[in-house]
Amino acid sequence: MSARYAVYYAPPRESLLSQKAAAWLGRDAWSGEALARPALPGLADLDLEALTADPRLYGFHATLKAPFELAEGRTEAEILAFAAAFAAGRAPFEAAVAPAALGRFLAFRLTGPSPEMDALHAACVREFEPFRAPLSEGDLARRRKAPLTPEQDARLLRYGYPYVFEDFRFHMTLTGQIRDEAGRDRVLGALQTHFADVSGPHRFDGVAVYAQADRAAPFEILARFAFEAEAVSA
Predict the structure, then answer these.
(1) DSSP class of residue 135?
(2) 59 is in which domain, residue-wise?
(3) CATH assignment at residue 54
(4) Contact between residue 30 and residue 234 where contact means Cβ atoms under 8 Å apart
(5) Which residues of 124-159 are buried (b: 16+ CB within 10 A; e: fewer)?
(6) Domain-located, residue 233
(7) Cα(128)–Cα(29) distance, rounded to whole angstroms?
């Protein structure tokens, strides 16, 4: 099975948010290194290894262009070069983030609307599309196990992922599913305390290309590209 690539938002490697989130997940997506997880008060009875297994596989990120195999004739070097040019033409922006619930999951989410994030997402979905190979029948069937609207199914076929544009919800995942509401609230409270010093206004200033050698392998960061354009004053 071929490698997959994805265009994600990832905070800078040296940022406190990146370091604290990688430690919480137990893996650094930059190096692939396993990390010691901090002991959060009130969570000693939980299997945090299992709780973070899914987001650990993907690395700390927010999806902008969902994972895809490369289209025929495209190369890793080409997508990296395109991502560098894409980032060079975009300007940084600021929006507030904080740990919050997203259904049964917990994630860093925007605390309010961000037209700039919506625009970044839409641009990634559309502009990186020429690099994406069509979905296999198996991938289509897997995606269609979830109930999709006709519009979502059409976007699945067109862009390889159903939850784009109006259905986009920015999130940097911190846990797998927590079905018990009381348990979810308990973990959320611990995460809100743990990440208090990196919650609030956040500068979004780049995009990263992640790669997965095969479907069982973890995603790793190939490169992060900083936005280079100047922000337009209001």
Answers:
(1) P
(2) 4-114+171-226
(3) 3.90.1140.10
(4) no
(5) bbeebeebbeebeeeeeeebeeeebeeebeebbeeb
(6) no
(7) 22
Asked whether residue 41 is assigned to any structural domain, the reply reads: yes
Q: What length does the chain have?
A: 234
- Assess contact for 2 and 138: CB atoms under 8 A: no
In sequence order, which residues have a C-beta less than 8 Å from that of residue 33 and are 6 or more positions away? 27
φ/ψ of residue 114, rounded to 5: -140, 95
- Tell me which residue has tokens 């809100």: 192
Taking only the tens place, the pLDDT of each residue in 103-160 is 999 999 999 999 999 999 999 999 999 999 999 999 999 999 989 999 999 999 999 9
Q: Quick one: DSSP state of residue 230?
A: P
As for how many domains the chain has, the answer is 1
Domain-embedded: residue 207: yes
Within a domain: 42: yes
